[in-house]
Amino acid sequence: MYRGLNAFDSDDFPRKEMTMKEIFAPLEILLGEVARWNDVHLDFTDLPHDTKFPNYPVSVLTMLESFSVRTFQPHPRHTTSLVPNYMKWISSIAESSPSLQKFATYGGGSISHLSGYNSTHSVPWGRLTSLTLERVSEKLALYILQSSSSLVECTFSDMGHYIDWNYDLHHAEPQLRDDIMVNGLEKLSVTAQHDLDVFWTHLIVPNLQELDIYMLPSSRQWHQGEDLVQCLTRSGSVLDAGPVPIPGLATGVPSNTFTRGPPISRLVLRNCNMRSRLGACAMLLSESLREVAVIDQAIVDDTIIKLLTLPDMAEAAPEDDGGDGDGAKTSQMLCPRLEQLTLIRCISASDGLTSQMVRSRWLPSTTNVADAEDEEDNELANAPRKLKFVRIEFSNPQHGEDVYQLEEMYDEGLKGRVGMKRNVELIKRKVVNPIPANVPVLQRPPLWG
User: What top-level branch of life does the organism fall under (predicted)?
Assistant: First the structure.
């Protein structure tokens, strides 16, 4: 670990050129056992600007399975050999590790030297099952994804519009395929500074199970709702077309096959202004969603709440369902498998509708099938599942009825909590006193006619 302000301005590391190599003395000792490395994290946050990264060739195979590096922020005073030597050394470790499955980089240092484009060394992207990259452009992320055929989970932190390529007269920006399919990807987390104009229009993830999108508070307003819906639509159509990619998928597949998205069970949207596209996302993912979290941006309106409200099971049941009534009723419901719901500072619906929706999903039927996983039993598998956890935070003070009804459900056993945005005081609901019971009714005098 090389970090901390003034980390090298001390008696142990005097600022002299002749002793600069001593900075890497601890690393040299560890490199003597590089063949035994298994899980390694290196932090080069505060390398001195005038240091020279030694040439550490890795000539033996390692047992490395997990490798993460926190890079330093390049500085004009860094020597021209520091960054190339540093990147070459990291890639040599990764390439000498046939068991490497997890790779992560953090910090503000550019990783374009590791991409394999316009460089003689790279990380073996095709072998990785887990990837985390911080401060990466959307084009570089896509370029790496199209080489990462084995990925199962992927995190892009602080994705933005950064300059990744070293342009010259002999190299142009690399070409991205129109459809970049990552067939095995199950978990995707994206944190972005800007609108992602390219990322969602190229990506296809037919087997994605968890999706987390976070637009940083400092970012501009997010306008990618339609692009996200199209990405989920293309990904869902692959299931109907088979595992083989179809050229021109975005325009070559009839629109009637776009009936569902990938099998996403967990969807988290933070500070994402989906406008009217949240309902479209929920409909595409309705069959598989079990956990939904929407945080910030008032996008959950009356329409969304009413779509999520389950009808009364007794009223919805037909008189003669032919023996498969549960399946028929489930097909009319939005997100019938939902078990966890988090809505924080995003509700713009009328007072009373949110609590009514939660109650309808907390007690959808007399049979609790939340733990029924036997897919052979169609009746239990298709029945709606009860909510197990509900967390709600209102930003509008006029939700007295919702808060009152939700607190009643929490007292009755529902897990979770309800609250108000900081510095917002709830306007309590108006209490209407009921008509007292056993009050005698005076009869009219007989002479009144």
Answer: Eukaryota
Considering the entire predicted model, what is its pTM? 0.81
What are the backbone angles phi and psi of residue 28, rounded to the nearest 5°? -60, -40
Helical packing angle, 353-362 and 400-412, nearest 10° = 20
CA atoms within 13 A on the CB side of 404: 13
- Each residue of 376-401: pLDDT tens digit? 455 445 567 789 999 999 999 999 99
Taken as a whole, the chain contains a residue count of 449
| CA gap 68, 59 in Å, rounded | 20
Are 199 and 159 contacting, i.e. CB atoms less than 8 angstroms apart? yes
Beta strands (DSSP E) in 198-345 are 203-204, 210-215, 266-270, 291-295, 340-344
CA gap 350, 344 in Å, rounded? 16
Residue 288 has, within 13 A of its CA and on its CB side, a CA count of 18
Residues whose CB falls within 8 Å of the CB of residue 87, separated by 6 or more in sequence, listed in order = 111, 113, 114, 119, 121
- Ramachandran angles phi, psi of 88, nearest 5°: -65, -40
Model confidence pLDDT, tens digit, residues 315-353: 444 444 444 434 334 445 789 999 999 999 999 999 999
CB 335 within 8 A of CB 383: no
Q: What angle do CA 295, 300, 303 make, to 5 degrees?
A: 165
Residue 409 contacts by C-beta under 8 Å, 6 or more apart in sequence? 355, 358, 359, 362, 390
User: For residues 339 and 389, is the Cβ–Cβ distance under 8 A?
Assistant: yes
Q: Is 300 helix (H, G, I), strand (E, B) or coil?
A: strand
Q: Which residue has the higher pLDDT, 189 or 249?
A: 189
Q: Report helix, strand and coil shares of the chain as percent, to nearest 5.
A: 30, 15, 55
What's the rounded Cα separation, in Å, for the pair 429 and 177?
A: 56
Type of residue numbered 288: S
